[in-house]
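Here is a typical protein record:
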Amino acid sequence: MYLMITVASICAVVLIACLLALVCRHHKTLWIASDDVILCFVSPVAIMLATFGFISLGWRITHGGLAAVPIGGWIGSAVIVAAAVATWLLLARRIREAGRAASRSGAAP
């Protein structure tokens, strides 16, 4: 269970960072891509999730190591990673298609 929470936190940080970079590249006018939102909301959330994830991973390594994780934890972690990858593929495709449509219609991306 601890490993699944750790993996979920780290996957959330990676997903937030990658999707935000994609939004900033293709849709500079969206509210989520503004400097204020990134500095005041997105960045603190990502920092808290990353801190929790890596401290949790460190705790797991110092208290029994990764070999002490039951098989259910590994299966759950694999499902979480697969869900994060599927979310990335789906949302990245939508963001890119919307950016292309906006550039074709003449609207500022």
